[in-house]
Write a structure and sequence with these properties.
Elements: E1 7-11, H1 15-26, E2 33-38, E3 53-54, H2 58-61, E4 68-71, H3 76-88, E5 92-95, H4 98-103, H5 105-115, E6 119-120, H6 131-138, E7 144-150, H7 153-165, H8 169-178, H9 187-190, H10 193-207, E8 217-218, H11 226-234, E9 238-247, E10 253-262, E11 275-282, E12 286-293, H12 297-311, H13 320-324, E13 335-342, E14 355-360, E15 366-373, H14 374-379, E16 389-392
The structure holds NADP nicotinamide-adenine-dinucleotide phosphate (NAP).
């Protein structure tokens, strides 16, 4: 495929789809032609001529002039059908749909192997941060020891608002919605699912491990209250929602999404608002830090354009770590240090801790901090109680 013969069929003309038009208008280099756009709702007003639009996916999929599909819908099941049919027809695909890629990863890997057609999704992981291609190419011959990061802009915005303005969670969430950073149904973001989809995709490129999202634990930020924020402030820390994958000395990989207290010496301490950041630790390259816009029409579309450009030199993922590290597996048997806040004195299962560092009881709320086996923590009957909140208090996974 060369730069001059890429003709795009676009699915979805929402935030990112429209962002792609803007990016193409302003691109100083590559400007592939978008021939047709498939959308869902006939009654919606569009800011482009009617001739561009269709509601019938086969007008794009069966058009022999269209050789690249850009999938930017918000429906992961419909998106997978589009991807499958595109690859079957020999059309390369670029997508930003993290839920679709992570939920159907095994199927998509098989389709790529069968049809040998490129399928790229840089925009699906932290939008403008070029993390997938770096995992694939730059760390090609290096072994990642761990990576962790703030992979969701909405939760980072909410936590920043709570800390800087003293707003309670609900008001900070409303601010995120007013600013267009959170959807009207924010569950996927605040409960950590969105971060988990990205984590699952990166796991494949970093450790050769492909797992369904429901096999990975996600604790969100929905239970964080002003008591937790005060605790963080007193410790001179900030609470961030961190997605993490960490190679364990005992074998396997610790993988989870959880709020964590981080301090000034942590590279992500100053990553506030809607920004995202990822820290990698590698055997040879040591530590690397990626920071940037993890969402938004233009930054996400910029990653889509970068993938389109990569197609023009026949780039495809080789999933090198999948070949090099075929024995990767998730291991939940390790220790973490946590803060647990609770209402009733015996609510938090203090006897399940290996070591208790701090105990605090008041008429308002109570907390303990200590060392606990992750396996025990996630299986405890108290962790899911509305009145109990858990936050990691440092990076130690051991
Ligand atoms: N927004 C971001 O900052 C961001 C960042 C990274 C990744 N992403 C990912 O990018 C994708 C698009 O996000 P978005 O924010 O642009 O979504 P959006 O604003 O909600 O737009 C979704 C678009 O998809 C269309 N659509 C839905 N179902 C369809 C179907 N079955 N066939 C054809 N078109 C369909 C909708 O059509 P109508 O216009 O007719 O409703 C709409 O144009 C999602 O997978 C999202 O996770 C978004």
């Amino acid at each position: 495929m060369s730069r001059n013969n890429i003709t795009v069929g676009l699915f979805g003309f929402g935030c990112v789809g429209q962002g792609l038009f803007s990016v193409l208008e302003n691109s100083i280099g590559f400007k592939p032609e978008i021939k047709k756009i498939c959308v869902k709702h006939k009654e919606k007003e569009r800011n482009l001529a009617d001739k561009y639009f269709t509601f019938n996916k086969y007008e794009i999929l069966d058009d022999p002039e269209i050789n690249v599909i850009v999938e930017l819908t918000d429906d992961f099941e419909a998106a997978f059908e589009i991807v499958k049919e595109a690859l079957e027809r020999g059309k390369a695909v670029v997508t930003a749909n993290k839920k679709m890629v992570s939920e159907y990863f095994e199927e998509i890997l098989l389709l790529q192997e069968k049809y040998k057609i490129p399928f790229l999704y840089e925009a699906a992981c932290c939008a403008s941060i070029p993390v997938i291609r770096n995992f694939e190419e730059y760390y090609d011959n290096d072994t990642l020891y761990s990576f962790h990061g703030i992979m969701n802009g909405t939760t980072n915005f909410i936590l920043t608002e709570m800390r800087n303005t003293g707003k309670p969670f609900k008001t900070a969430l409303e601010s995120a919605q007013k600013n267009g950073y959170a959807e009207s149904n924010p569950t996927h973001d605040i409960e950590g699912y969105d971060s988990k989809y990205k984590l699952c995709i990166l796991l494949t490129h970093a450790f050769g491990l492909t797992v369904k999202p429901d096999k990975v634990l996600n604790f969100g930020i929905q239970k964080i209250n002003d008591f937790d924020i005060r605790f963080a402030n007193e410790k001179k820390g900030k609470i961030k929602l961190i997605a993490r994958a960490h190679r364990l000395k005992s074998g396997g990989i610790a993988v989870f999404v959880m709020p964590q207290l981080i301090f000034e010496n942590n590279e992500l301490f100053t990553v506030d608002g809607v920004d995202n950041g990822i820290v990698t630790e590698n055997f040879f390259a040591d530590k690397n830090i990626f920071i940037g816009k993890g969402a938004g029409a233009i930054p996400t579309a910029a990653a889509v354009l970068s993938d389109l450009s990569a197609l023009s030199y026949d780039y495809k993922y080789e999933y090198k770590k999948k070949m090099q590290l075929s024995n990767s597996f998730i291991n939940n048997d390790f220790f973490v240090n946590v803060y647990v806040r609770f209402n009733e004195r015996n609510e938090a299962g203090i006897h399940q801790f290996e070591e208790v560092y701090e105990e605090y009881y008041s008429t308002d709320q109570n907390y303990i901090t200590g060392k606990i086996r992750f396996n025990k923590l996630i299986r405890s009957e108290w962790i899911n109680k509305e009145s109990v909140n858990v936050i990691l208090i440092n990076d130690k996974i051991y």
